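Incident log, structure service

09:12 report received: a user says their structure output differs between two submissions of the same chain.
09:20 pulled the input from the user's history:
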Amino acid sequence: MLGRGVLDGLAGSAFIADVDARDRAPLRIVGSVAGGFIVGAVAAIASMILLLAMYVLVSGRGAEGLAGITNLLITLRDAKTASLTSTLLQLILDTGVNLAFALAFVATAAVIFSRHLRVFVTIAARFRWRLVVSGVALSILVLAPVFIVDRFVTGPPSAIPLIAISPDWLQRLGYLLTAVLFIPAAAAEELVFRGWLLRQAAAFIRRPLLLLLATGFLFAVMHLDFNPDSLLTRTLMGAGFAYMTLRLGGIEFSIGAHAANNMLIMLLIQPLTLHLPRQTSAISALSLIEDAVLIAGYILITEAVARSATLGRLSGLRPEEVTASSAFPPERLAGPPR
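09:34 re-ran on a clean worker, output below:
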């Protein structure tokens, strides 16, 4: 399904078409990174304090003031098992903090590079929510079997998180619904790594395969988990998300795919806690097979949306938004203009 013409065509993706000399200016790059981190850190801290304060007030502990916020953080840190309340609170915190940082960081870069914030998100006239939903649905459909195999072949002996969270079905339903928060959480990472970093790297790297692998590797390294198995998997994931972004002209589909991956982990593999154990496993034959299925699955669902008139229409994707190739000209990518 992935021909050389499609891969080579990514160099002409409209998502990076406006990258020019100003994106290679050293002072702008240093200023955007340094300034972005500073502004982003301030925004993230402010967001965390605001969210914790709101929770303390809503829970009736407002009289405790700063001590109440501190005690809440300690409770989350020391929690030995996940509960519906702790999972929901941590997801809200992670989402709020990461979104605040990402928006502040990329907005700073947009100002320094004299760009509109939208160019780091999509080439479409408006954000394509249906493409996000398609990314979630198709990723779960393709990757759920991989997670299930991983769970029962190499996974921990503990119960499935969705079942272990509570014997009450309403609690389990609540845990399932909290997974929706992974969509805005994934949006924060995609905005930084596929929105800003991919465009920034494209200012220096125009060979598509090298661009995908380089940004995928940086995505993996920034997670600070250097276990070889995890590093390889995240590199391929990052490359797959970058492929989606270049092929479909924006980060919407990769947001959905990224969120689906995190949803499946939380529901089937590992509950959300503040002290996840680091893996020490080496790369195995099974993990290589899973990685191959992962990247093949990402390419498969991306090409399905890009080439199928029905999926393209359901996803709100227009033919002119899809990166063309010599093998698949625009009129064959997603049906007639809508």
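09:41 both user submissions now match this output. Likely a transient worker issue. Closing.
09:42 reviewer note: Residues 326-338 have pLDDT under 50 and may be disordered. The CA atoms of residues 150 and 286 lie 9 Å apart.
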